[in-house]
Specification:
The complex is a heterodimer.
Chain A lengths: L7 H27 L12 E6 L2 E6 L11 E4 L10 E3 L2 E2 H7 L4 E5 L12 H20 L4 E6 L1 H12 L4 E7 L11 H7 L3 H8 L4 H10 L2 H15 L3 H14 L7 H13 L9 E2 L2 E2 L9 E6 L7 H4 L2 H4 L5 E6 L5 H4 L1 H4 L2 H13 L9
Parallel strand pairs in A: 3-6, 3-7, 7-8, 8-11, 11-12
Antiparallel strand pairs in A: 1-2, 2-6, 4-5, 9-10
Helix pairs in contact in A: 3-4, 6-10
Chain B lengths: L2 H5 L3 H24 L11 H28 L1 H43 L14 H18 L8 H49 L6 H21 L1 H30 L6 H25 L5
The chains are: A alpha/beta, B mainly alpha.
Chain lengths: 367, 300
């Protein structure tokens, strides 16, 4: 009798083993899930030093005396929350910066309500950001500060730096979309056909829940199914569960996006791709990338399905600065900040790059 | 039996008998109600006044009924009434016919779709999506039912009625669009199952089946992921997504108008009122900030 093509007995015995293993995992998981878990995020202490409407400015005091002349302002996107940069000890970009003596400020965009639906990109860039940058400059008696942007926040930083180059010493952009004429990412394909006027006119602000659902749809097999299968397999591991819950807390903490900002972002950027062509108009002024003359460090991820490399890599070739550098990491959109491998590459690279262009502090104490 | 008796046979005679009996019944009821009571109220008292009012109402109602029933008993009136009743089935059939025709055509589409389900679907191919069933439903709704919601309303509350009808219409269109969208999202799951079956069959022939359930799962998830990526890049998906968002927006606007109408009756501001206020506040704040900036001394 030949060997059976379908080893049913082997399959059944493996299945029995898997079931037994699953039972053991489930028993241990019950113990893990029912005990107190440390799932707090954004635990690094800070002070709120400036407030304007819903926007707050957080200041993180450096762990050691500040060794940098120029403080760094971090501008996160309007989508999701800036707490991702301080997700947990050991995976905190903020803590890495502070340990290296950087004086860090971060914008907390807050939670827009219906009254914010009229706020435009101009209000965010030439309004809130400009006021905050003036506040920091005044506080530190400096004419220029360092600026770092993440995703849509990076786009805002590029716009600001092109409009006000005299106020920015060094610019860092991370996973920042500047070229929207690419078919590498699904978002770029979907946004081309979106009737954003109708959507904003009916909904006001773009609800965070709808955007969350849209992001999940980018890869439902992995993000809605496989992720939770992985959780079930490891839910007996306390550390894994805590990290998982932290990430869940962050990923579904999605504020609404002010309607007019969303409208212009989709129409002028995703659909008309005006920024990379230096044709974007903000606050009545044309955003000319050639005016971006300060040193520029541009990070992006090769596996980023939200902001693919094609959306990021053209920037350094379009700006007026001669000191530019592209860094492509083998990671995705979020992994660049939270993966343990990138923690060793990403934040230290930024610190060293700034140090080369900033010099040591003359007076370490800030105002 | 003479002719008159013949004519009065059947339903006509029954109706006549019923009318006569009911008239006699109400006559006797009225007589007993109007008969002086055992303990009569004093003339001119409040009780006597109210009894007289009640009696007058009774008398006029019975007189009206008497005159109606005497008219209705006449052969010509009865004939007219029955002609109207006999015409009812024809009218009902005429009204229901379009709806039935539409339902049967939809059923035909469903049967065709069920027949097509048996054919093997090419992997990673979403060009010939079986969306005919949804199209048939939408066509049926738009041709047969929508017209009733678009009938112009009349009277004092016509504006509100039209808004209600419009909201109902938008809701139905949105339901159709989102059903189509959700069914499209399920397509990769079906296709991946089919591909898995075919793949496992060929692996079984080669004698290289996966050893563990985990390996089966990984195979399936990878296949599923690939199908979703292909679907999301297709023009059909983009159209369905666009249609869903468009119909959602339209429904939201229509629903908001109804809610605003309802809120206007209550002492609470509507969203429209608040939006107008927000706009004014926004413009004022912007102006103030601009002026503050102009008057602020230079920082550095």
């Amino acid at each position: 009798m030949g060997k059976p093509k379908i080893p049913v007995d082997l399959l059944l015995s493996k299945l029995a083993e898997d079931v037994e293993k699953a039972q053991t995992t489930a028993q241990k998981a019950a113990d893990v899930l029912l005990q107190p878990l440390d799932t707090a995020i954004a635990t690094t202490p800070y002070d709120v030093v400036y407030e304007e409407d819903r926007v707050k400015l957080k200041h993180y005091a450096p762990a050691a005396a500040s060794r940098f002349k120029t403080p760094l302002l971090v501008v996160y996107a309007l989508i999701n929350r800036e707490t991702m940069l301080d997700l947990q000890p050991g995976r905190s970009v903020v803590q890495t910066f502070l340990k290296e003596g950087l004086d860090v400020y971060m914008i907390d965009w807050g939670y827009p309500t219906r009254k914010d639906k009229y706020l435009t990109i101009d209000d965010h860039v030439n309004g809130y950001m400009d006021n905050i940058i003036d506040f920091i400059r005044d506080r530190h008696h400096l004419d220029k500060i360092n600026l770092m942007g993440i995703c849509m926040g990076g786009t805002f930083c590029v716009i600001y730096s092109a409009l006000h180059p005299e106020r920015i010493r060094n610019l860092i952009t991370t996973v920042t979309p500047t070229n929207f004429d690419t078919k590498q990412g699904l978002l770029h394909i979907w946004m081309k056909h979106m009737d954003v006027d109708r959507l904003v006119d009916s909904l006001g602000n773009m609800p965070g829940d709808i955007m969350n659902f849209g992001f999940l749809l980018l890869n439902p097999a992995r993000l809605m199914l496989d992720k939770y299968v992985g959780f079930l397999e490891h839910m007996d591991n306390k550390s894994f569960v805590e990290n998982f819950v932290r990430m869940e807390k962050w990923i579904f903490d999605s504020p609404d996006v002010p309607g007019e900002t969303f409208r212009q972002f989709i129409k002028d950027l995703y659909q008309k791709n005006l920024l990379i062509k230096s044709e974007l108009v903000v606050g009545g002024k044309r955003v000319d990338l050639k005016n971006l003359t300060m040193p520029l460090l541009n990070f992006y991820g090769s596996f980023d399905h939200l902001v693919p490399p094609g959306a990021c890599e053209l920037l350094t070739g379009k700006v007026g600065s001669t000191d530019t550098e592209d860094v492509c990491l083998d990671t995705g959109h979020i992994g660049i900040y939270v993966s343990s491998k990138c923690q060793r590459e990403f934040a230290p690279k930024i610190v060293n790059w700034l140090r080369e262009r900033d010099g040591e502090a003359q007076n370490p104490e800030a105002a | 039996m003479d002719e008159k008796t013949e004519e009065k046979s059947g339903p006509q005679s029954l109706l006549e008998a019923w009318m006569k009996t009911s008239t006699d019944f109400w006559k006797s009821m009225t007589r007993s109600a109007t008969a002086p009571p055992q303990t009569a109220a004093a003339p001119g008292s409040a009780d006597a006044m109210s009894r007289r009012g009640t009696l007058d109402t009774w008398r006029s109602s019975v007189k009206t009924w008497q005159s109606f029933s005497s008219l209705a008993i006449e052969p010509e009136s009865l004939e007219g009434m029955f002609k109207g009743v006999n015409a009812l089935p024809d009218i009902m059939v005429k009204m229901m016919q379009p709806a039935w025709n539409g339902f049967f055509s939809l059923q035909q589409e469903w049967l065709k779709a069920a027949g097509r389900a048996g054919r093997s679907a090419a992997a990673y191919n979403f060009e010939n999506l079986d969306q005919e069933a949804f199209k048939a439903f939408t066509d049926l709704y738009e041709k047969e039912f929508r017209q009733y919601l678009n009938v112009p309303a009349l009277g004092l509350t016509r504006v509100y009625q039209e808004r209600l009808n419009q909201a109902a219409d938008r809701f139905n269109i949105f339901q159709a669009a989102i059903s189509e969208f959700v069914s499209m999202l399920y397509l990769p799951v079906e296709k991946s199952m089919k591909v898995m079956q075919e793949e496992l069959t060929s692996m079984a022939d080669r004698g290289s089946l996966p050893q563990t359930s985990k390996d089966y799962y990984r195979m399936w998830v990878k296949t599923l992921e690939g199908h979703y990526m292909t679907l999301f890049k297709s023009s059909e998906y983009n159209e369905a997504l666009g249609k869903t968002l468009k119909t959602l927006s339209e429904f939201v606007v229509a629903r908001r108008e109804i809610l605003q109408d309802a809120l206007q009756a209550l002492p609470v501001p509507t969203q429209k009122d608040m939006d107008e206020l927000y706009k004014e506040i926004y413009l004022l704040k912007k102006r103030v900030k601009e002026l503050e900036k102009k008057n602020r001394p230079p920082i550095y």
